[in-house]
Fold this sequence. Notes:
33% helix
Amino acid sequence: xxxxxxxCLIGVGDVASALVQGxxxxxxxxxxxxxxxxxxxxxxxxxxxxxxGFDVNSNKVGKDLSKAIFTEPNCNMNFxxxxxxxxxxxxxxxxxxxxxxxxxxxxxxxxxxxxxxxEEMKKKNVDIAVILLPTGxxxxxxxxxxxxxxxxxxxxxxxxxxxxxxxxxxxKAEDLNLSLIGDDVKSQIGATIxxxxxxxxxxxxxxxxxxxxxxxxxxSSDFCxxxxxxxxxxxxxxxxxxxxxxxxxxxxLQNKEEVECRVSAVDYIPFLKNQKEAYMRLEGRIFGGAPVxxxxxxxxxxxxxxxxxxxxxxxxxxxxKDRRIGGILQSACSFFNxxxxxxxxDYIAKKRLLEFIENRRER
Length: 363
């Protein structure tokens, strides 16, 4: 097992479900592998080893990860049934993890004991902790990140909460020679990457972008969490997620301060399950001041759309751990995440990531 990458999933929701199903499927059917970067050759899918999970859902706690991923409110598509993984799902501290609308669909049991997160990770020799908690639970994200580092694990943060932008977490990671990748995973072919590509197309072709909007809706617990009803009946979109997505869309525009940009989740529609739908509109001007407008709609299985990226993050993190590189992996953050320390054009970020993988760039 020397080449195995031991993984702890912090939050066993739909993205975790897609990740576990996909990795275990590819182990059995290597000829069917798609959706991963082929340039990462140091580690393969077969090296990823799920050993532990943390959640607060009383119906998931106590189960093996292979079963917990199919427990409600998870609703990601079922495309592979993993064998028993010997990866227990333990109860972690809730902290601020259920302060939003999600508390209405996640059952908890005060009689279930809370595990010592750091000690349990140590027992399982966790290499990488992947944080997949509900958006907005900033205290919980920091707690688990610090616990993971104390246990000797690198951290991949799939959520908008700050990890790579938290000075205390970064300092600890640097001191322990453990890497950080974050924040807020950028889906493989998601609304953000498509929207970002289209906004960058305008100046690349000499046009001017004046305004753009992106509206998302879906039926997963993530949308339930993002949209919280207020006393007046209005739905409020989690501000950290809005900031992360908006920044990712317009980050590379020279006139970004002048562009009117609005990104928002607009509704939680349970019957859509884990299917996410998005509408994007871009308005601008071309030669002679003539108007141009682009409208695009997309449909995607949301959990799967992040899972492949996380599998690549895991393998890159292990490369960094082997090289004893501590702190922020700048190239990986810029390529894989919506809210990295440094926003780069995607092709530049990919180039730097490949240089890191090939050991021609430190981080």
